[in-house]
Design brief:
There is one protein chain. By secondary structure, the protein is of the alpha/beta class. The chain has 2 domains: 214 residues, FAD/NAD(P)-binding domain; 114 residues, 3-Layer(bba) Sandwich (FAD/NAD(P)-binding domain), CATH 3.50.50. It contains 10 helices and 21 strands. A hairpin with a 4-residue loop joins strand 16 and strand 17. Helix 1 packs across helix 10 and helix 6 packs parallel to helix 10. The protein starts with a strand and ends with a helix.
Length: 380
């Protein structure tokens, strides 16, 4: 079966749903393919808290916001501080229903543009033909691992995005490689689920834990929507200053609510270190050598090494990548988040190089939707 549409949205996370909602609001025929909030539901633990507040939402129209969702349910913002992932998922489900977004849980196996229109071939063999495509690939495609990860036996190592249930590691000795938010939150979760010992090894000092405000992002997002090409036209010194602010708030500072959860004696921190040796003994034990001379025997390794863009790792983009300009793994985008292949938009994490670090957060979703739909309407 072949379906024809004006806009095909690939993905059903925050950026995809935000774009689909605004496109439909402006009368653009839209088909959405993906698992609603699939990465969030399948690759984030149920006990996780978000780093954002109730002012971050998906609605470019500013109506169906997270604050409106909480108000409708008589939930005070102070009751969701910090914000549980489950509350945000409930909000997104409410948003999707309020906007009338139908999501088809079909996966795109192949995307091509053979004759002026895009053709998406689905896993089941059906096809969707579209004038434009907004693809928001989940960041699981971009999970970063150290070079030595390939030497870890299968089943004995995982990235944080693939470790969302901790019961099986009760009584285990776990090494977490990394020292930012996910590393320390996963350490807390592992301790709360009975891990015998959790070692955190990272090259930098132990971050500080404090309450921070993300309000400084608001004028940056507003400028992005108000001035075409705002980020790329900023002097390098100003872009660097903004990037440093994000680094200070998001990387050098971790959430205050982690502090009481990290007091367990099972958690040991090894700042200023990195893994320099790794081996599996004849008895099947994993032995890790740190740069400070410490040797650890572990049952499981968890990589909290973040994400690094590489659009070549998105399977369904393979058929069109030869038509997409790429720099350092990122697509080169125009002022409307459009790729060099006309009609293809790549919002979200893949847009952070050309639009700033705030496009790696939910906060940027309504702005991305605005830029894309504005461009689609101008082309009509």
């Amino acid at each position: 079966m072949t379906t024809t549409t004006s806009l095909l949205v690939i993905g059903a996370g925050p950026y995809a749903l935000s774009t689909a909602a605004l496109a439909r609001q402006h009368g653009i025929e839209t088909v959405v393919l993906g698992k609603p909030m699939g990465f969030w539901r399948e690759h984030m633990p149920a006990g996780m808290f978000l780093r954002s507040g109730p002012d971050w939402h998906l609605d470019a129209a500013g109506v169906h916001t997270l604050e409106a969702f909480l108000e409708e349910r008589a939930i005070a913002p102070t009751d969701v501080d910090p914000l549980p992932i489950g509350v945000f998922l409930d909000y997104v489900e409410w948003f999707q229903q309020a906007k009338g977004i139908e999501v088809h849980e079909d996966l795109v196996a192949h995307l091509d543009k053979p004759d002026g229109r895009f053709v998406a071939v689905l896993d089941g063999g059906d096809r969707v033909v579209a004038d434009a495509v907004a693809a928001a690939p989940g960041i699981r495609h971009f999970a970063s691992l150290p070079d030595w990860a390939v030497s870890v036996p299968p089943g004995r190592a995982t990235h944080t995005c693939d470790l969302v249930r901790f019961e099986d590691l009760a009584g285990a000795r776990v090494l977490i490689v990394g020292g930012r938010q996910s590393a320390y939150e996963w350490a807390a979760l592992l301790a709360e689920h009975g891990a015998e010992r959790i070692d955190l090894a990272h090259r930098h000092d132990v971050p500080r834990f404090d309450r921070v405000s993300w309000r400084f992002v608001d004028p940056l997002v507003e400028a992005t929507m108000r001035v075409r090409g705002w980020w790329r036209d900023l002097p390098a010194s100003e872009r660097d200053a903004i990037a440093r602010r994000f680094w200070e708030v998001g990387r050098l500072t971790l959430e205050w609510w982690l502090t009481p959860r990290l007091t367990s004696r099972s958690i040991r921190r090894w700042p200023g270190t990195e893994v320099v040796q790794f081996e599996e003994t004849a008895g099947g034990e994993l032995t890790v050598g740190l740069s400070n001379g410490e040797r650890l025997t572990v049952d499981q390794v968890v990589f909290a090494c973040g994400y690094r863009a590489d659009v070549a790792r998105v399977p369904y983009l393979e058929g069109i990548l030869d038509q997409v300009r790429v720099a350092d793994g990122f697509p080169v985008l125009d002022e409307a988040i459009g790729a060099s292949l006309s009609g293809l938009y790549l919002p979200g994490f893949t847009a952070t190089q050309d639009f700033g670090p705030f496009f790696g957060f939910v906060k940027g979703a309504p702005a991305a939707a605005t830029l894309i739909v504005r461009d689609l309407l101008a082309r009509a």
